[in-house]
């Protein structure tokens, strides 16, 4: 034996605990719990709060990751060969997923306003969804569709979505997604 010691790297992260924490946080957010704390998340997940801090720097970061995981759209970005159809498929799937997670997303947005780490997670999620829609527009341009103002088209799509999430102005249903897709296809192509 050489006498050399292996440096201590701390306790290993447990993936099952991480999943339990995310599920607990999502459950608390979805039910609109007021006063969510690291302690309430830990109790709901059946872990110690030090386990939470091994994975996330703040309460906001864990809440946002839970919200993003619940709202993530599993369907691939469509490529039907038609801008209108691609927008329709993408927005219908997006609205359907968001409609099932409205409360969770509203609470996640509120958390992001209070916590920089949470805001970073929400921004990464928004950027990834925007990039997916930008891919649809890019493919349409490659097929010869002249997109008038790509950034404005992206803002319009997600502006409607977030407005309806935050203010419940109107439904996030399939018909609204289809109308938005048709309007965006018309305006994007000028």
UniProtKB/TrEMBL annotation:
InterPro entries the UniProt entry points to: Homeodomain-like_sf, HTH-type_TetR-like_transc_reg, HTH_TetR, Tet_transcr_reg_TetR-rel_C_sf, TetR_C
Residue ranges: DNA binding: 37-56
Domain HTH tetR-type: 15-74
Pfam families found in the cross-reference section: TetR_C_11, TetR_N
Gene3D superfamilies for the chain: Homeodomain-like, Tetracycline Repressor, domain 2
Keywords from the named record: DNA-binding, Transcription, Transcription regulation
An annotated Gene Ontology molecular function: DNA-binding transcription factor activity
Keyword DNA-binding among record annotations: yes
Name of the protein this chain belongs to: TetR/AcrR family transcriptional regulator
Taxonomy of the source species: Bacteria, Bacillati, Actinomycetota, Actinomycetes, Pseudonocardiales
């Amino acid at each position: 034996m050489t006498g050399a010691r292996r440096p201590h790297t701390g306790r290993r992260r447990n993936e099952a605990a991480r999943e339990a924490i995310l599920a607990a946080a999502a459950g608390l957010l979805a039910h609109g719990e007021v006063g969510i704390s690291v302690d309430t998340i830990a109790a709901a997940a059946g872990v110690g709060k030090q386990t939470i801090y091994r994975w996330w720097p703040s309460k906001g970061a864990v809440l946002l990751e839970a919200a993003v995981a619940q709202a993530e759209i599993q369907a691939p970005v469509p490529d039907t060969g038609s801008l209108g159809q691609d927008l329709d498929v993408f927005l219908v799937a997006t609205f359907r997923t968001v409609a099932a997670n409205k409360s969770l997303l509203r609470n996640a947005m509120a958390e992001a306003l209070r916590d920089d780490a949470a805001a970073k997670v929400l921004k990464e999620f928004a950027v990834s969804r925007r990039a997916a829609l930008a891919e649809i527009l890019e493919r349409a341009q490659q097929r010869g569709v002249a997109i008038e103002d790509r950034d404005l088209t992206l803002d319009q799509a997600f502006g409607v979505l977030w407005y309806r999430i935050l203010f419940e102005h109107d439904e996030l249903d399939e018909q609204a997604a289809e109308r938005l897709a048709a309007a965006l296809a018309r305006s994007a192509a000028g």
